[in-house]
Specification:
Elements: H1 2-16, E1 22-23, E2 35-38, E3 41-43, E4 56-62, H2 64-71, E5 79-84, H3 91-103, H4 111-127, E6 132-138, E7 146-152, E8 155-161, E9 167-168
Parallel strand pairs: 2-5
Antiparallel strand pairs: 1-8, 2-3, 4-5, 6-7, 7-8, 8-9
């Protein structure tokens, strides 16, 4: 009986245990040979530092033949097109994005992907109330998982989440 009580206590403790975030890798500098467009206007990479991640509606990276077709002679490392929430309805931005989407259509996220990302965001905000969330998106090396990057107490951290938005050990 005592072993059953110990097992139940251990199970309860594990169920409430937090998954500790790991230090995030240092941010890589932006590539030098890239063209940037924000709300349809060509800009320098310095303009990106003035955009809060929460103000971004979408980001489209265009390379290769699509880049050549859309922009003619373009930098070899690609073109990054950022649409902000404030600019996404502007007729000029809509026209610019329609031109890009005709060549490289955006694939909208599935309902399950949106739910997973929202659950991951909610976990970070609840568990780390003073954290500043930088990014939540698909994990590059693990299909169906989401990677988060955030800063908390001056440290840049990361957590991995499963498809339902539950944290998992890395």
């Amino acid at each position: 009986m005592a072993s059953l009580v110990a097992l139940l206590a251990l199970s309860a403790a594990l169920a409430h245990a937090q998954v500790a975030p790991t230090p995030a890798p240092a941010q890589k500098p932006l590539p030098k040979n890239v063209a940037y467009y924000v709300d349809g206007q060509k800009t320098g990479s310095d303009a990106l530092t003035k955009i809060a991640p929460s103000d971004i509606s979408n980001i489209n990276v265009i390379k290769g033949a699509d880049q050549q077709q859309l922009f003619g002679v373009a930098p070899s490392d690609g073109t990054v097109v950022i649409t902000t929430k404030a600019g996404e309805s502007s007729p000029e931005v809509v026209a610019f994005n329609n031109r890009i989407n005709a060549v490289k259509p955006l694939v909208p996220p599935t309902a399950a992907q949106v739910a997973g990302v929202e659950a991951a965001k909610a976990y970070i905000l609840k568990t780390y109330p003073s954290a500043k969330l930088e990014m939540v998106g698909p994990a590059r090396d693990k299909p169906g998982y989401y990677q988060t990057f955030f800063t908390d107490g001056g440290k840049r951290l990361q957590l991995l989440f499963d498809g339902q938005g539950q944290p998992v050990k890395q």
